[in-house]
Design a protein that fits this description.
Strand content: 15-25%
Distance between the termini: 16 Å
Strand order of the largest sheet: 5-6-7-8-9-10-11
Number of strands: 13
Radius of gyration: 19 Å
CATH topology: TIM Barrel
CATH class: Alpha Beta
CATH superfamily: Enolase-like C-terminal domain
Length: 284
């Protein structure tokens, strides 16, 4: 394999080129992701490729992180996610629902920012806006299981599920209605599919704000899931200022077409900190 060490948007990215294609290693600073799992994901993409897709296109959600809300930017998406867990949450969600109208699915993501009582209170208040689900309202599976029995809005687990034992425990606790999975923390597309199966709940594939190479792995996961009940969080390339391809993975009318991504040599040169080197791939 060949290894390309890059810096894009002030973030270190390592791309692996192998017989099956391209993989990406790019842990996000401050986000929980075992480096060994991220290397496994990159090697899988480059050496093995991904499972046969079950669908040719994947619906994706738009993302709102702050106001003001632009209705034109959200047009055509089947679902919209609002990041919450900060002052002004109610107003931001209300403005988003007003911009969307009643027919578009609306979800919120707290990234584990709330304690159990705060989560129950906030979800009760936000339920007035007809939420599809709440992602990671609390930080642990135990709290998620308790919260699910106190609220009527469906809940999704995210960062609290990383291993097969976590997925089995989610199922045993009946802790969530859905599971959010990212390929790098899971250790690859096949490992993520195994977690989805063990959890026993519908899965939402999302990204870690990678380049188009990394997002292609999330798209491969979404395409290979036996069931795809929810729009996926894979519309993140457009939030970057730099990418490794002139044909980035961005949706049309809220849908991503399933395809592989091959970086463009001029962009690899532009963002390279060091020349490409041969590698046997990390064993960790």
């Amino acid at each position: 394999m060949r290894e390309y060490r890059l810096v894009l948007d002030d973030r270190a990215v390592c791309l692996l080129e192998g017989p099956a294609g391209w993989g990406e290693y790019s842990p996000l600073p401050g986000y929980p992701c075992d480096p060994a799992a991220a290397w496994r994901a990159a090697r899988e993409a480059a050496q093995q490729g991904w499972p046969t897709p079950l669908r040719a296109a994947v619906p994706v959600n738009a993302l709102v992180t702050r106001g003001p809300v632009d209705p034109a930017a959200l047009a055509g998406y089947p679902a919209v996610k609002v990041k919450v867990g900060r002052p002004g949450d109610i107003e931001l969600v209300a403005a988003t629902r007003d911009a969307l109208g009643p027919d578009v699915a609306l979800r919120v993501d707290a990234n584990g920012a709330w304690d159990l009582d705060t989560a129950a209170l906030m979800i009760a208040r936000l339920s007035a806006f007809d939420l599809e689900l709440v992602e990671e309202p609390v930080a642990t599976l135990d709290d998620l299981a308790h919260l699910r029995r106190r609220v009527s809005v469906p809940l999704a687990a995210d960062e609290c599920v990383r291993t097969p034992d976590d997925a089995r425990r989610l199922r045993a606790l009946d802790a969530a209605d859905a599971l959010v999975l990212k390929v790098q923390p899971a250790g690859g597309v096949r490992a993520a599919l195994a977690l989805a199966d063990l959890s026993g709940v519908p899965t939402i594939a999302t990204s870690m704000h990678e380049t188009s190479v990394g997002v292609a792995a999330g798209l491969a996961l979404a395409a290979a899931l036996p069931e795809l009940r929810y729009a996926c969080g894979l519309d993140t390339v457009r939030s970057r200022t730099a990418d490794v391809t002139h044909q980035p993975l961005v949706p049309i009318a809220g849908v991503l077409t399933v395809r592989t991504v091959t970086p463009d040599p001029d962009l690899l040169d532009r963002y390279s900190g060091k020349p490409a080197v041969s590698t046997q791939a990390r064993s960790s």
